[in-house]
Amino acid sequence: SVLLLTIPINSITLRVLNRIARRENEAKDDRTKRTTEAISNMKLLKLQSWEKTFESDIEYYRQKELRLHSIRGAVRALNQAISNAVPAIVLVVTLTAYKNTGKPIVASTIFTAISLFNQLRFPLFFYPMLIDSLANGKNALRRIASYLSSEEINPYVNRFPLIEGGGGTIEMNNGNFMFPSSASLGTGNSSQLIAPALCGANISIQPGEIVAVIGSVGSGKTALIKG
Description:
By secondary structure, this protein is mostly helical. It folds into two domains: 2-155, Up-down Bundle (ABC transporter transmembrane region fold); 170-226, no CATH class. 65% of the residues lie in helices and 7% in strands. It has helices spanning 2-40, 42-48, 51-100, 107-118, 121-148, 182-187, 221-226; strands at 170-177, 198-205. The mean pLDDT is 77.
């Protein structure tokens, strides 16, 4: 009966840990988001003297995260203490019930009971870790499912139909690529060109092929793609 009483206690502990973990992750996400925003716009922060404002905002979410982490640690410690105390409580209750039957309690009975209930200590030692892992796993699955089920940002996603056979071929024969010099960029004079970045390029891409352009630095990869 004592072991059965631990089932609702562990169920409540799992729900509490899951709720705290979800709130802690939300606070962590808010802190990370604001930290990234501050780092990405550091020049604007310095220009407008917003360092203290962003610092206090980040510190608020950091303290919230630490507070929830402390509460979560306290719940885990309480659950660990209950799990460690269960074998001793079960032993005391069992010996008390055995004595109430009118039978004498001898040393052989006591040591046998102690040896039996000590076998419970090893599985119960890992039980709090299992509950904490279940809470973390459930929360992680919820976050992954929320991310994977979110809609695509349409303006930034271009979908092209799959190219089937017979759709044509991209070919280039003896292609030469060169860039204008820095002096001609401001004057509009296209006659001032630097040496060709790529000469005599021949390429043939069949429909449906996946092509990777590789090479050393300065070999003309960018010139080929932009050309």
